[in-house]
Amino acid sequence: MRAVTWTGRNSVEVADVPDPGILNARDAIVRVTSTAVCGSDLHLVDGYVPTMQKGDVLGHEFMGEVVEVGPGVAPDRLRVGDRVVVPFPIACGACTACVRGLWSCCENSNPNAGASEKMFGHPVSGIFGYSHLTGGFAGGQAQYVRVPFADVGPLRVPPGLTDEQVLFLSDILPTGYMGAEMCDIQPGQVVAVWGGGPVGQFAADSARLLGAERVVVIEPEGYRRAHAEAAGHETLDPSDLDIRSALLELTGGRGPDACVDAVGMEATHGALHVEAYDRAKQAVRSETERPHALRQAILSCRSGGVVSVIGVYGGLLDKFPAGAWMNRSLTLRTGQCHVHRYLEPLLGHIERGALDPARIITHRLPLEEAAHGYEIFKTKQDDCEKVVLTP
After folding, report:
1. Residue 203, domain CATH
2. Dihedral angle sign, alpha carbons of residues 138, 140, 144, 149
3. How many Cα atoms within 13 Å fall on the side-chain side of residue 352?
4. Domain-ending residue, one of 334, 364, 379
5. Domain boundary residue among 318, 334, 350?
6. Model confidence pLDDT, tens digit, residues 256-281
7. Domain that holds residue 376
């Protein structure tokens, strides 16, 4: 089959790879009908996530049709012919973490748990197409994909919904929603979101859905600010403003009630001297993150507020403002998204028209043009907000 493979730093190519097969009784094979390039994929391409190997199949946002199921998958749970969207974390459904709804912390799905334990202190779940640190599972930017624990993860898609309406249930829509949910939003509150990429857009939409009176999206790219404004959100340009001062002015000197970091490890537009410091340390791999957005969020949030972090961080950062966090009673919440928790509720919002995930799609390409899709998404060419690939 054809699949998008990692061939080195800043290099992907579509290549022939072996077809997947059933390896365990609870597996399924899905023929992919739609898949997408995610901002998290860029961290792999940029070389900031360790343990990638040449030929690894990329992609963790995908959906399609079930073409084979293992003998351990009950027919009432999944059948050949079912149309499904698949969560990016792989979860067993039975461990302590899964029972508590912490699906991305599954204790059983990562065969390389020892490596992630050394990195993070405790193991994390397996993830499709996201390095050998999270299991080395082949990803979904392919014609077919093996789905472990298929009796737990995939969501059947109701008839009448298009791929583009539900594809992002695999990752970025639940991730954005979780980022907003962790803010404990109350009616009348102000929420600031760092990042106008796909996850930031959905975090802003979700904050409004959950009752925020004002949502401010902080984003340097004009076309992304335009997307946010078209959805009814306010915007600020960090390349043109001191963000903390601007947010204080917007909130009568108090600061936003909650701040969402939807940027993560490759943030830009911090103070010039600090940005230069972070870029230099990151370039020589003595720091893995550029946490400008996180620092701004902590320093801008009102005292007693919530800082919600859904942008991906993978290692170590410098100059974390622990004093501001502790002395001003800030609550810091974060996590890889527990996608399974949100599938049914968000599907309901889509069916009712309360959320429009397809609004962020700007480019639709065949799988064979994936390298071009990665390039325009990474370099923000042609006002690229989101790339959907069709095998």
Report:
1. 3.40.50.720
2. positive
3. 8
4. 334
5. 334
6. 999 999 998 777 766 666 777 777 77
7. 2-171+337-389
Which tens digit of pLDDT belongs to each residue from 207-229?
999 999 999 999 999 999 999 99
Mean pLDDT of the chain: 94
If you count DSSP H runs as helices and E runs as strands, how many of each does the chain have, helices first?
Answer: 13, 18
- b/e sequence 289-305, b meaning 16+ C-beta within 10 Å: bbbbbbbbbbbbbbeeb
Distances, alpha carbon 109 to alpha carbons 44, 91, 97, 181, in Å: 21, 6, 11, 26
Are residue 145 and residue 112 in the same domain, yes or no? yes
Inform me whether the pLDDT recorded for 292 exceeds 80: yes
116 and 245 inside one domain: no
Token look-up 């050394």 returns: 118
* 371/131 Cα distance (integer angstroms): 18
Of 133, 102, 132, 141, which Cα lies nearest the Cα of 116? 133
Nearest to 158 by CA among 75, 83, 215: 83
DSSP 284: T
Q: Helix, strand, or coil here: 68?
A: strand
Residue (of 13, 51, 59) closest to 131 by Cα position = 51
Q: Are residues 161 and 201 in the same domain?
A: no
In this structure, the answer to whether residues 231 and 326 fall within a common structural domain is yes
Q: What percent of the chain has pLDDT over 70?
A: 98
User: What span, in angstroms and rounded, lies between the C-alpha atoms of 98 and 338?
Assistant: 9
Residues 168 and 36: beta-carbon distance below 8 Å:
yes
Domains in the chain: how many in total? 2
Residues 247 and 146 in one domain: no
pLDDT of residue 255: 98
Residues 151 and 239 in one domain: no
Give the DSSP letter of residue 59.
-
- Judge if 22 and 111 occupy the same domain: yes
